[in-house]
Amino acid sequence: FEKWVLTVTAQTPTNIAVIKYWGKRDETLILPINDSISVTLDPNHLCTTTTVAVSPSFEQDRMWLNGKELSLSQGRYQSVLREIRSRATDFEDKEKNIKITKKDWGKLHLHIASYNNFPTAAGLASSAAGLACFVFALAKLMNVKEDESKLSAIARQGSGSACRSLFGGFVKWIMGKDEDGSDSVAVQLADEKHWDDLVIIIAVVSSRQKETSSTSGMRESVETSLLLQHRAKEVVPERIKQMEEAIASRDFASFTQLTCADSNQFHAVCLDTCPPIFYMNDTSHRIISCVEKWNRSEETPQVAYTFDAGPNAVMIARDRKSAAQLLQRLLFYFPPNSDIDLNSYILGDKSILQ
Length: 354
Ligand code: PMV
Fold this sequence. Notes:
binds (3R)-3-hydroxy-3-methyl-5-(phosphonooxy)pentanoic acid; globular; 16 strands; alpha+beta; four-stranded antiparallel sheet
């Protein structure tokens, strides 16, 4: 080989589930026990930017996250690297006189640099954006000729929810039936333009790292929660259908009812786990009460809320007007410098604050 460096840079936003994934039927392949649906955030806000580079002068695979080197020996990175390398195809850049055959890809080493434009430890689904971006950038670099759904099955093996970040708009992760996971893929339900009145507001209640990781939390719930079995079999399949209809017809009242109910059931499953898992805290509960009270006082709901494996609230307002009203209400209940930080995580147009 001549000495050269080939690079690709990609940017991937994070996604927030409105029908939650909680529980694996296969921990190695990361196969879920139910379908899930999410909304992908605007790439200008919470996103990961990753540059991948390959060069014959690199002596080993290395990765940096926000400027700090981390080990690639974790199983999740190894599975993804193996899957991508096995699908690499011949590459040629005649101008630069670079030729890499399918076989060469297995011998060449990579350097990967990734940045999150939001706090990595804040429980804002950083692994979803990170793993999706890792897979997408590597697939481009290694000339992998597979569509986003096929790539989603690889991202899934890095972090389950990452498979949904390969698409914008509303995305469904189909649990699939095959043992090898080849049909457990993400598909786009509607693109980002389909329902662009919605405004997403994130209230950071705590930026502390969660005490129970989603991996161990899910394992404990699968082993001990009867409510989780009931949810996966009897509740989610119907909810998925209703949510697809609500999204297709932009029915905000149904969307809100389903989103809030599903977040609350997910946290009920956490309480039903032995020992119980507490992801939300008092501030999260006060935010729920504030939104519920307001929704009930209006003719039709104004805001949906949902909480992942942490206390931070993700609120989806029906339009800019209700987003502005929501902020006023929240600022009244939680004045500046209190328990939550609102200003830094208003997604979309910041002028709604004025
Ligand atoms: O993909 P993980 O292991 O980070 O799990 C994500 C779990 C939830 O965020 C709570 C739900 C979801 O569907 O994203």
